[in-house]
Design brief:
Shape: extended
Strand order of the largest sheet: 1-2
Largest sheet: 2 strands, antiparallel
Number of strands: 8
Distance between the termini: 144 Å
Helix content: 40-55%
């Protein structure tokens, strides 16, 4: 059969290609459909949608339970009353059915009539406005031709007045019909009101249940593609005000979508639920009040990637290796690994307080941030800023004592043993430099001994010496009594004394005694002092601390020669002879020389290194190694050492350590912790040199890690992590920061001085301080006394957080200034504890005076109140006499016949010491200002029970003013007298 000829004009190859293209289009369309389906499903099957569905189910069940609970709490008697009234209203409606129908029909007619009249009334008012405008315009154009427009206006005004009368009449008749209907339905209205009152909570919850309970409508709204319109499952986001994210050197508006999953974060009642459905701790502080969530958001405190809506993309950070493994369920690889392209991973649990500093700058302590405050206080106490530069901490004094005259104080043998293992002698903040590497070899231990010997020799060689004469003989028992009573134990502890040690709630929520951050750790632990100190030096020191070291913060307790001798005898009796018996290895000169050569070859050529080495004699070699070792380990960061006055710190700067990228951290071979910044810092402060483990064979000795070991507890390490994370480069705008006003700046300056000199070791200020009270209480109990006298025999509270009243509101400005300058004139001379002399300069005296005044928001300086009239003063004198105040109070130096615990301050000093405003509050309610005071309240809560109604008609306020007026005349002022036989009454 001959081949078929192609049709004219048709290309057979093109037809074939078209068929191929059809197949390709069909296959790609199918593939596109499949991909589109997967894409739609992937968009629909979001992680956060699962959480929202789970939370909705939880909320529905919780609401149903609440409905049952509130329903079961309805009073049975009222429920029966409601049922009775409902039955009565049903009978009433049945009986009045026809009458009610008739009234309702008439109400309908009246409603129609009212509508017509109301419309005419409103429209006429609108036409009046138009006519008024036309009239005014016509009169403006032609004053003589506006009569027509005026006539229209007056006619409309008359119609409007008629409609108003009709509208008022209709409203009156409607009200009458409504009252008539109410009378017919009296029982129904009463029962509905009672039902509303009884079931108001149930009704509210039922309305809520209708809104949140899933149904067909919500199912359709949340279906794929349809959820583009108005789904019930949706992304929630917060746009914090004035806060931006720094993303690759570009500022972008911060957007927080955390509440998409954390749905109950600001709702009470979910505190015991698991994440992400739990309520935020302390909602009032962190999400309301000063930190409203709609202005602050979440990531400004927690960090993380706020725009993310998935667990991994939000950059959660595991706290432990176990948590990291548990979080594997959120990853397709079953191993959790945070995304690395976000510089600010979410903070680990308990460390969010570290971010408070971004807004609360220039403050000594951040309110309520206990873990942060404890951590930053530890940084200060341990002297971390001595080795690590921290912006804002440059001017703080070195934490360790001056070593330029150390040979006047102790011996060379003690110094060697002390620097080798400080904690072996007594509890201390001094870290351990040597013998702290994990798995140290014998060669490393030998090297440690050589370095310690060289450092000891160098410190001794550059130290000046003052020879102190032997102290007078002292009484050990008397010295212990003086030590425990005059105030020494507000700053010092002996052994493992836990009395007065502050309990701090850590980031993990534990209540832990922070012995190294407590007020009683302000000064060194004095256990073993007799094995360390020269008795002559100690006697001179307790007599005048600044005579040896002008920068010391130890105050002068104005001890007499006898007291100083007794205290010296007591402290010298505290021995630790076992520590002194520890063998001291001899200096291995061969190893010393080897280390010296290593140091020289690192700085010079081998030939020059050999030349320099050969030029040294034996002593010079030891001094050279000692100097190099001190420079390597940074001992000068805490101590003043001759020759190192201007040497730069040896540690890495910590100013932005909290923002350091994880990729810049060397974890070494440590795989037992998550590779996160908090975990790295935590292990670093616990085991500073552990990241060298397994590397000593590949590292040169000068490359080994050198941070000393502070032997911190787990809780202290956790607080230090919070502190380090607070050193961040992240900045928030000034508008978002807490701006300090003038008074607040004075308060912060005062708080700095209060911390530096440990005022809270004796005095309670706010919620903290008064550590010495525990010792005073213990001494009272041991002596068989009543522990309730502790307050009376303790230093006074300087600020009551509850009443917001403190020392600034109590005393005159000039009196406080003078007392701080010279506190030897005691207010309560019978007390054993004494206010020490701090030898403040004029700037410090003024700063503290302004601090207390600013804290109490009172006038600075104080202006005395005007003198009251003679009659008021006389009445106050009589009330003062009737109250028998002199039974407890000293008056002009005359002590009352009382036990010391019941004695009160000298009232002759009132005019020069106390502010009039505070005095009135004190007389009204002493216990509100000084809890636990023995001062009685002479005014009952109920004024009708006043014991002296004859004075001012029983007006307690006027009686208080009278007594205050009298007290302000004491101290040498002439007292007013009352004429005999003429008692003052009813003034």
């Amino acid at each position: 059969m001959p081949p078929t000829k192609p049709e004219p004009g048709r290309d057979p190859e093109m037809a074939e290609r078209t068929q191929v293209l059809n197949v390709v289009f069909a296959l790609t369309s199918i593939a596109l459909l499949i991909v589109l389906s997967f894409m739609i499903w992937a968009d629909y099957d979001r992680e956060w949608k699962t959480y929202q569905k789970q939370f909705t189910e939880m909320d529905v069940q919780r609401t149903k339970t609440q409905i049952k609970e509130v329903d079961s709490k309805v009073d049975a008697q009222k429920r029966a009353q409601l049922e009775q009234e409902l039955a009565q209203s049903k009978q009433e409606l049945q009986a009045n059915r026809d009458a009610i129908a008739k009234v309702e029909k008439e109400q309908g007619k009246l409603q129609g009539e009212w509508y017509a009249v109301d419309q005419n009334f409103r429209f006429t008012k609108a036409r009046i406005d138009v006519a008024k405008y036309n009239f005014e315009e016509a009169r403006h154009r032609n004053p003589n031709g506006a009569a027509k427009e005026e006539k229209k206006l007056r006619e409309l005004e008359k119609d409007w007045a008629d409609y108003r009368v009709k509208l008022e009449d209709v409203n009156r008749r409607k009200a009458e019909k409504q009252a008539e209907l109410a009378a017919l339905e009296k029982n129904k209205i009463a029962s509905e009101k009672l039902q509303k009152e009884l079931f108001v909570d149930k009704t509210r919850l039922e309305d809520k249940l209708k809104k949140i309970q899933p149904g067909f409508v919500s199912f359709v709204r949340n279906m794929p593609v349809l959820d583009l319109a108005n789904p019930s499952l949706k992304v929630q986001q917060i746009l914090p005000a004035n806060i931006k994210d720094d993303v690759i050197f570009t500022s972008t508006e911060k957007v927080d979508r955390c509440t998409t999953c954390h749905l109950a974060i600001d709702r009470k009642g979910f505190e015991n639920e698991k994440q992400p459905f739990t309520t935020h701790p302390n909602v009032e502080l962190y999400l309301q009040g000063p930190h409203p969530i709609d202005r602050i958001g979440c990531t400004v405190c927690h960090q993380g990637r706020g725009r993310a809506t998935g667990f991994v993309n939000a950059v959660h950070t595991p706290l432990t290796k176990e948590q990291e493994k548990a979080w594997g369920k959120y990853s397709h690889t079953k191993e959790y690994e945070r995304i690395h392209h976000w510089d600010l991973p979410m903070l680990t649990k308990g460390h969010t307080e570290s971010q408070c500093v971004k807004c609360h700058q220039s403050v000594v302590e951040v309110p309520k941030a206990t873990s942060l405050n404890a951590g930053r206080q530890l940084v200060e106490k341990l002297g971390c800023y001595g080795c690590h530069k921290i912006k804002g901490w440059e001017d703080l004094r070195k934490v360790g004592p001056d070593l330029t005259r150390i040979t006047s104080k102790t011996t060379e043998d003690f110094i060697f043993r002390w620097i080798k293992e400080p904690k072996g002698f007594r509890p201390t903040r001094m870290p351990q430099v040597w013998d702290v590497r994990p798995n140290e070899t014998p060669d490393q231990l030998a090297r440690n001994n050589v370095e310690a010997n060289a450092v000891t020799a160098f410190v001794i060689s550059v130290s000046g010496r003052v020879d102190y004469p032997a102290p007078p003989a002292g009484d050990l028992v008397g010295g212990r009594k003086v030590f425990e009573t005059v105030g020494c134990m507000a700053c010092h502890r002996i052994g493992d004394d836990q009395r007065g040690v502050e309990i701090i709630k850590t980031a993990g929520g534990k209540d832990v005694p922070f012995t190294r951050a407590t007020f009683r750790a302000h000064g060194p632990n004095l256990d073993g002092s007799g094995s360390k100190l020269n008795a002559g030096w100690l006697y001179s020191w307790v007599k005048n601390p600044k005579g040896y070291w002008h920068e010391t913060r130890m105050p002068n307790l104005r001890l007499s020669d006898k007291e100083a001798a007794d205290v010296t005898a007591y402290l010298m009796s505290l021995k630790n002879d076992k520590f002194l018996e520890r063998p001291r290895p001899a200096l291995d000169k061969a190893l010393r020389d080897k280390i010296i050569v290593e140091n020289l070859e690192n700085a010079f050529t081998q030939a020059e290194a050999k030349s320099r080495f050969d030029a040294m004699d034996d002593t010079q070699r030891t001094m050279f190694l000692g100097e190099k070792t001190i420079g390597r380990y940074g001992c000068f960061g805490c101590h003043t050492i001759k020759g190192f006055e201007k040497t730069s710190p040896i540690g890495v700067e910590l100013t932005e350590e909290g923002s350091k990228l994880v990729e810049r951290l060397d974890f070494g071979f440590q795989h037992q912790i998550p590779h996160t910044l908090p975990a790295w810092v935590d292990l670093k402060v616990k085991e500073p040199r552990i990241y060298d483990e397994g590397k000593h064979e590949t590292k040169k000795p000068e490359e080994w890690l050198r941070m000393p070991k502070f032997w911190v507890t787990d809780e202290e390490a956790d607080a230090l992590v919070t502190a380090v994370l607070s050193f961040t480069k992240e900045q928030v705008p000034l508008a978002a920061q807490k701006q300090l006003n003038a008074d607040e700046r004075y308060v912060e300056r005062g708080r700095r001085i209060v911390r530096d000199f440990n005022c809270q070791g004796c005095h309670q200020i706010g919620e903290r301080g008064g550590a010495i009270r525990a010792i005073i209480k213990d001494n009272i109990v041991k002596a068989g006394g009543d522990e309730l006298t502790t307050v009376a025999l303790s230093p006074p509270m300087l600020y009551n957080e509850k009443s917001k009243i403190g020392e600034g509101a109590r005393v005159h400005t000039d009196w406080l200034h003078g007392f701080l300058h010279d506190p030897s004139n005691k207010i309560r001379p019978w007390l054993d504890v004494r206010m020490p002399s701090f030898e403040f300069d004029e700037e410090q005296l003024n700063a503290i005076s302004r601090y207390f005044a600013a804290q109490d928001k009172v006038a600075y300086p104080y202006e005395p109140a005007p003198v009251a009239d003679a009659a008021t003063i006389a009445a106050g004198h009589e009330l003062f006499t009737k109250w028998q105040c002199v039974k407890c109070h000293v008056v002009a130096g005359k002590l009352p016949d009382q036990e010391p615990a019941n004695m009160a301050p000298d009232l002759a000093k009132v005019p020069q010491r106390l502010r009039a405003g505070w005095l009135a509050k004190w007389l009204a309610n002493p216990g509100a200002i000084q809890p636990g005071t023995r001062m009685p309240s002479n005014f009952p809560e109920n004024p009708a029970e006043n014991s002296y109604p004859e004075y001012f008609g029983g007006d307690q306020q006027k009686q208080i003013e009278a007594v205050r007026a009298y007290l302000l005349t004491l101290g040498g002022a002439e007292r007013p007298s009352t004429p005999a036989g003429k008692p003052i009454a009813s003034r």
